[in-house]
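Q: Hi! First time doing this. I have a protein sequence and I read that you can turn it into a structure. Is that right? Here it is:
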Amino acid sequence: MEIHALIKKIISFGLMIIGCFLLQTTVFSNFKLAGVTPNFLVILVSYIGFMRGRKDGMVVGIVCGILLDLFIGSVFGLYSIIFLFLGYLNGLLRQFFFGDDIKLPLFLVGISDIVYGLFIYFALFLFRGRADFLYYVMNIILPEAVYTIVISILLYYPMIRLNTWLDKKDKRGAGSIV
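A: Yes, that's right. Below is the predicted 3D structure, encoded as structure tokens:
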């Protein structure tokens, strides 16, 4: 990969991570529905992993996780591990990525948000003696997953355009190395 293409990829990913982090932690904290907010970082990690592959999904996942660990986490490293795992799992399905089909990416975002919610429940609530699992699933995990899926519909096509742009940069850079 050409150095210019790599720099553009790093800058693009960095801006997306910062933008999604700010949307999640500031703007949409004022737009709660059913007491939950959409998880923009799960959307980002799922889409990057699914569209770009395991490596990019894991890198974006670990950076998103570190941001959450630094700013809102109570146990450092928990969010990093969760998002690294989500980026890897979504990246495993890259071979099934077709830009015009939105059903599988939305399904993966929903599953990723549910897995994220379950990890948080087990790590932060169950081990601290709060065992009302059904309440947590029905009032936190599922409403957040639905809200996240709805918001991810709006972000899908801009992500497709960005992925196409990055693919062009990758291919152009690969052709110039002799």
